Amino acid sequence: MTSETSRQSCVVACAILLAALAATSAAAGRSAQPVRVLVVTGGHGYPTSFYTLFEQPDLVWDHATSHEEAFKGDLRAKYDVVVLYDMSQTLSDAGRKHFQAFVEGGKGLVVLHHAVVSYHDWPWYYELTGAHYWERPHGRTPASTYKHDEYVDVREMGAHPVTAAVAPVRLFDETYKGMWWSPRIRVLLTTDNPTSDGPLAWIAPHPRSRIVTVQLGHGAETHRHVAYRTLVRNAILWSAGRLSD
Ligand SMILES: [Zn+2]
To answer: Residue 232 sits in a domain of what CATH number?
Structure first.
């Protein structure tokens, strides 16, 4: 091989290497974009440990302290995922319109713990989330019940990216029982604890949006538990379309 040939080979090899590096960094740049999350609270107390759930890699977040504040405008360009941790029964017509536009626009939704108590009189909401806690009797259905300070043995119902590296695990948390359940949900996590209906995390199918609901999440023991932190982060990433099935 002449030195000229050698130089040409080096130029070609270097060009290929540079192109590969550029493609890799472009891909890394895309995946390095954090998921933009709006966290919605209001209507129910909680410890500040809750906020630490969103201090995790790949997430940036804003906080709305009421659902009226959260849904006062069109959220679609600003956020990838809304996390609901609020508990409320009313939302203005404009707020409902913006909430529905976010979901129908294919954005992600993660519903945590007492947010399944919200909106008794808005069936769209609980069909969306796949379950509902009745705070008061509903027709012939009695009110749902809760139980604090339960040891909950959590087990997985088949592999799914949302529950990767989560179960089996024992959490110390609050359980709900006697809820309404959509027959369409796919249960991801369950328990045999008798103070629970069983399902602890599930997906409510939607034609455009990815929606995950998690029943657990009352207190600091759960918020700071690595399994719960992994579950919430996975749920946010999956609902944002960052984790494939
Ligand atoms: Zn609670």
So the answer is: 3.40.50.880
Q: Which two tokens stand for residue 23?
A: 């493609």
Distance 148 CA to ligand 1 centre (A): 8
CA of 126 to the centre of ligand 1 (A): 18
pLDDT tens digits for 38-87?
999 999 999 999 999 999 999 999 999 999 999 999 999 999 999 999 99
Q: What is the mean pLDDT of residues 108-116?
A: 98
Whole-number Å distance between alpha carbons of 131 and 137: 15
Residue 232 resides in a domain: yes
- Residues whose Cβ atom is located within 5 A of ion ligand 1: 174, 218
Distance CA 125, CA 129 (A): 6
* Amino acid in position 146: Y
Ligand 1 centre from 65 Cα, in Å? 17
Indicate if the pLDDT at residue 19 is higher than 90. Answer: no
- Domain membership of residue 99 (yes or no) is yes
Q: Is residue 140 part of a domain?
A: yes
Is 22 within the bounds of a domain? no
**Ligand 1 centroid to residue 133 C-alpha, Å:** 12
Q: Say what the pLDDT of residue 82 is.
A: 98
